[in-house]
Amino acid sequence: MQTTTPAATITIAAPAKLNLSLAVLGRRADGYHAIESLMVAVSVADTLVLRPSAVPGIHLVLHDGGCGVADDIPTDDRNLVVRAIRAVAARAGVEPALACDLVKAIPAGAGLGGGSSDAAAAIRGVARLWGLDWPLERLADIGATVGSDVPWFFAGGAAIASGRGEHVERVAGLPALAAVIVWPGTPLSTAAVYRAWGEKHVDTASRAGDARRLAVALAEERWRDVWPLLHNDLEPPARGLCADVDDSLAALAEAGAIAPRLTGSGSACFALTRTFAEAQTLASRLAARHAPAGEARWPFVRAVRLPVGGGG
User: Could you tell me the residue range of the domain that residue 210 belongs to?
Assistant: First the structure.
């Protein structure tokens, strides 16, 4: 995430992520699911602007950054940005008085990590705004109390998440790649997808270690090994809950994509490409498709670069 500090304003880019692999290794005693996932930050991002307010409280306003803003996204204490700021304030002994503008370029309910990335950006932002010289590890630990994916966004670039997502191991050496992302406009509930996984899952413990194997194969550009390792254990339950996932994966394959996959718990799907030009070509083919009524078939089609950012 990149930050600037003009006057008393903090502006932070909060990038989306893709799960290049996602193994669900079982349900833990605490109710969370144990996962292992190679995740990469990509070049589509929300933008969070924080500035002091004369009015006590956290005043969050959402803006459309190109993906639409769902009417059901809350701006109160249910929003991860607000919860993240309150978590920092509680530890710092600060009574927040903030105006927060969040420009949404990442669709909600897509599996692209927008809410978690926004929360990480909020933690970084208020730490700077309030002059808190806290190490990154402390900020990430605060993030873990807000959401399982939040600590990963303090690593940036590429990293493997494990445990329930709070254990993060940075990955170096990945080549500059690209991807095309398709979101059908139908949000999926992470909790619902995991419930469906629990009802019908098969033993996936053998996938432990696949994330590291994929990272090595990518770093060495051994593509024959890369494609089979692009896998998401949540894809079958997501497909069962949302027919649009099947449609998106099929459309990506028809457009020429190799090994298209679901990201996170969906409903967005993606295809990894070796060049940005290839991703742009696939995106153009998909954007040209229309629904029977004449509107664009998918409200969100993007060619993106990865991995981007480096954390720190």
Answer: 177-306
Nearest to 207 by CA among 225, 230, 191, 190: 230
Write out pLDDT tens, residues 261-285: 999 999 999 999 999 999 999 999 9
Q: Which residue has the tokens 């509680």?
A: 90
pTM (two decimals): 0.93
How does DSSP classify residue 220?
A: T
Q: Active site residue: 46, 104, 118, 149, which one?
A: 149
Q: How many CB atoms lie under 10 A from the CB of residue 291?
A: 9
133: annotated active-site residue: no
Q: What is the CATH number of the domain that holds 18?
A: 3.30.230.10
* Same domain assignment for residues 214 and 295: yes
Residue 312 lies in a domain: no
Nearest Cα to 256, choosing from 220, 223, 280, 240? 280
Whether 104 sits among the annotated catalytic residues: the reply is no
| Active-site annotation holder among 17, 46, 210, 244 | 17
How confident is the prediction for the chain on average, in pLDDT? 92
Domain for residue 311, yes or no?
no
Name the domain count of the chain: 2
